[in-house]
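MID49 protein
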Amino acid sequence: MAAFWQQRGRRQDGGGLGGVIDGLGSVLDVLLANARLVLGVSGAAVLAIATLAVKRLIQGRFSPRDEGDPKAEQKTLEESWQDLALIKTTPKPPKKQRREDLSEPLLSPAGPLVPGEAQDPRDSSAPPEAPRAKSSPLRCLTLQEKLLSHYSSRLAVPDIQVSLVPQLARSICTQLQNFLRSKCPELPFGRLFLSGALVDGLEVLAADHVHLMLPVALDTGLWSLIPGEDTVVRNPQYWMIKRIDLGYFPRGCSPWDKFIVGQYLSSNVLSETLHKMLVASINWPAIGGLLGCVIHPVVASQELKLEVKHDQVELSITLFPVVEMEDKVLLAVPPAGLVENLWLESFYRAEVSKVKELDAGDSGARQRCLRLLNGVCRSHPSLHKLGGSPVTHLILHLSDTGSDWAEESLADRFQQVLEELVAYLEKGVLPSYFNPKINLFSELLEEEIDEMGFVLYRAMSEPELLL
């Protein structure tokens, strides 16, 4: 740019109209010099033709040699307009292909065309344009289709876990049974058996936990049940097992008398005794080496729990001492706090039996709906405590209303369960199907209930949020 201004100054010193013309010519020259950088080759060519025409027009109008010569002036004007006409005939550069057109072949001419003849497209050697596939419009899936897809693709337990976990758990069960018989032959433990969703075909996502039930055989003539309403916790879901007729059958008549606290069979004392055995008395490294896995008892847990690590699976086994009396199934699971001696009534066996019975009667989809809801609760951190018994009892309540549980109505029943759950959470009470006095939400905190209700309330209008 400095050279341009120096040249411009020298031409101005020359004075007159010729200096002005030379100055304009210099400006146009600079524009042409920089046009290629800014506009590219094709743009610079177009600008050059236009500039040339303008320069000729200016020189033709103001050049001294053309003054007084009309023919020369007319000739100069004609040449200028001819140059300007070249702008229209200058071929435009081909447009750059868009990203989506890069896959299409570019057509190239077969050769130079003879002036005045048009190229026959049938004679062109260019490959024909590939026909474009018609894009079908996206179809919106219904809730029924989404539920069935979610059920088949995401909830299924891996086959290796389905086959390996029960086998591994039964092997550990056998080893534990043999130990108890040799260590405590005086205690009439029943035969250990497996329980849980995996055993009953209701497991979802992963088979990573199983329950091991240890029956405690009691002489019904020496023991009786005290209803939960009559206990210190006033909770109908908990029971006490009382030692009776101590005057006629003093302590020692029952092998379980060593676990009595204040005339009641203490679930705490029995669990603590078994916990010590699991942690300190059983040679788990040897058993694990025999079964091809590593077994660790969980020392810090209040539950009787084993952690099992295999090359292909990781498994958690929880041991539950269980008493069956008067058609009640009681587990040695005392409530949190300082209260002892209480046994928790379990409805799991009755729940599974009732659901399968109802499905067998009307070819219903209750079990499928239960698996879907258990999968949702298990994968969602806020809904974790709703899985299992609460959802099962709610499905049983809805079954009494005469609802259609055919597979075609799965989406309607799924959404109805969500609506009912929100209503029960709003009240803070979900009565047990087998004992209406029991509130299945009694163990939940108020903050947990609020969070669950908020999540499910949103899902009522958009159930897909849970999938």
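thats it. The domain at 349-466 is CATH 1.10.1410.40 (Poly(a)-polymerase, middle domain). The longest helix spans residues 16-62. bye
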